[in-house]
Specification:
GMP Synthetase, Chain A, domain 3; 7-stranded antiparallel β-sheet; 3-stranded mixed β-sheet; 11 helices; 22% strand
């Protein structure tokens, strides 16, 4: 009762997250301690749970047990989980890092996801939107979860290095711009923008490493998203700033030998990318005008993908 009364007296200037309310109601945290930790987290940009556990207000283990009891979700010791056996392509690594979650498995059309904060509705909605699957939470200790997210990121980075090394580039022949008009030459020069080039390279390489069949670059009124088709399902991978849409479309059209000045009719083209010294990946490119810009679909045509053995499949 005292915990409930303290919640009623919460400072109107501080809107505590659901996790804090659950801890206060369970008697695991004082209201003032929660408010102070939340203010520090807001000021420093630190994670609220990291602020709580780092300050000694509550241990990771105590927090995990409290969350399990409050939300009726199973508790899992991540030290018993083999990182190498976790699914690697069900959720974008950036989302895992942003919300400190780890996908443990898939059951039907639902993902089993480890989290320290089952009250995080934003994380659940983001995962649902990105994967088009439901989410079932498993509670894990925050510090162990953070280490596992970092381990997954390191593993993914090493895997990418093994695939591409440091030698990847677009086929120079596919970037031939001979005969371009002066206005087109100016546009071409503009899209040689390093961030745009790096972003496009990363998307293509990520799609290749995740065995995606195609990439979708989709502009909307206020947002822009990139989705990969993996095992027949479209999954959101990135949501770059909307301001990138025109430069990105132009960059793709330049290397596909399409007319970058034509934005009113669909176009089809091809491009190639060298991956390492002896491998070339072909891509088929299709553009489609929409109300908010050009939607672009890139199909990966990798001959080696047809040579996978039954074990790889």
């Amino acid at each position: 009762m005292a915990a409930a009364d303290s919640l009623m007296k919460a400072s109107p200037s501080v809107t505590l997250p659901g996790l804090a309310h659950a801890l206060i109601t369970a008697g695991k945290l004082e209201l003032k301690t929660a408010e102070d930790a939340y203010r520090r987290a807001q000021t420093s940009g630190n994670n609220f749970i990291a602020e709580l556990t780092g300050s000694g207000a509550i241990s990771s283990a105590e927090l995990a047990h409290a969350m399990s009891a409050a939300y009726g979700a199973p508790l899992l010791d991540l030290e018993a989980v083999d990182v190498q056996r976790l699914p690697k392509d069900l959720l974008d690594l950036k989302i895992c890092q942003e919300f400190r979650v780890v996908v443990l498995s898939k059951r039907g059309n639902r993902l089993i996801v480890a989290t320290a904060d089952p009250s995080d509705a934003k994380a659940a909605e983001r995962i649902k939107f990105a994967t088009q699957m439901g989410v079932d939470w498993i509670i894990a200790e925050h510090d162990k979860l953070a280490r596992m997210v970092e381990a997954n990121a390191t593993t993914a980075s090493e895997a990418m290095d093994n695939i591409i090394g440091e030698d990847f580039e677009f086929d120079e022949a596919s970037m031939d711009t001979g005969g371009a008009s002066e206005s087109n030459e100016a546009a071409i020069a503009e899209v040689e923008d390093a961030p745009v080039v790096k972003f496009l390279h990363k998307m293509l390489l990520d799609a290749f490493s995740m065995r995606a069949s195609d990439l979708h670059f989709e502009p909307y009124e206020h947002t822009y998203r990139v989705r990969f088709r993996i095992d027949g399902e479209l999954r959101e991978i990135a949501s770059p700033p909307i301001a990138i849409k025109d430069k990105l479309a132009s960059r793709i059209k330049v290397i596909s030998k399409l007319d970058i000045s034509e934005k009113r009719v669909p176009q089809d083209g091809r491009m190639k990318m060298k991956v390492g010294p002896d491998r070339v990946i072909d891509f088929r490119v299709s553009t489609l005008p929409t109300l908010f810009g050009e939607k672009i679909v890139i199909r990966i045509l990798d001959p080696s993908s047809a040579k996978l053995g039954i074990d790889a499949l």
